[in-house]
Amino acid sequence: MTRTISILNQKGGVGKTTTSVNLANVLGSKDYKVLVIDLDPQANSTDMLINIVDEEGYTFVDSVLEGKEEAITYPTVFANVNILPSRLDLATTEKNILISPKAQHNRLYKGIKGIMKQYDFIIIDCPPILNMLTVNALNVSDEVIIPIKIDKAAEKGFEMTLRNIKDMSESYDLDIVYKVLFTMVTRTNVDKMKIEEITNACDAGCVIHTHIRNQAKPIKEATYSQKSIINAKTGVGNDYVDLVNELLEEW
Length: 251
Fold this sequence. Notes:
This protein has 10 helices and 7 strands. 43% of the residues lie in helices and 14% in strands. The protein is globular and about 50 Å long. It is of the alpha/beta class and 251 residues long. The protein has helices at residues 16-29, 44-49, 61-65, 90-99, 107-112, 132-138, 152-171, 189-201, 216-225, 235-250; strands spanning 3-7, 34-38, 74-75, 81-84, 121-125, 143-149, 177-183. A 7-stranded mixed β-sheet has the order 3-4-2-5-1-6-7, sandwiched between helices. It has one domain (3-250): P-loop containing nucleotide triphosphate hydrolases (Rossmann fold). The longest helix has 20 residues, at 152-171.
């Protein structure tokens, strides 16, 4: 049975795309079939996972959402991981969906329902904003992972994201589980204190025990070289392996 996970925070710079890509990477290394859907017009997941020199010949998620093309996925630099890529045109697509007389909230589901059974996991890299793209992601998701970097802005983004997830779940009668993932964690007392505060404010069982440590250099190097961070013998790579192992125990 396919499990669909959206990675979402309405604040940028919290490790959303890094988490999407590495979650998929680790699952693929365990021989699960994984699809990454890049639902962010910035297309960072797309850039990290495939090399698109010329857009001709590719099917992008914006065309699928507008019903112009059937979903076609492409192999990535990681084993067992495919992607439905994004591009800047997706920003215009969101506006087109809003003015369309057709149903707006289930475009993504209609576009991918024919290929969902091909995958064990679908990871959706959402835009850092609540819009109709995000609504479409939530409507196909079993779970939402909210990455949080410990700073004041990220905390506000988390609170707003969580409130909107709960509102959307109620509005569309969705049964979505949310999980909080602390990213870019340091060993400072401030981080420890804030993590404890946020954990206490969350529903029971909704905080992921594994923390992703702050190691910018290996993440940046892996991003630019399109290489696997989990094979680079780095602490942050091990963190993502531990994250997947923890999640698999629950799933």
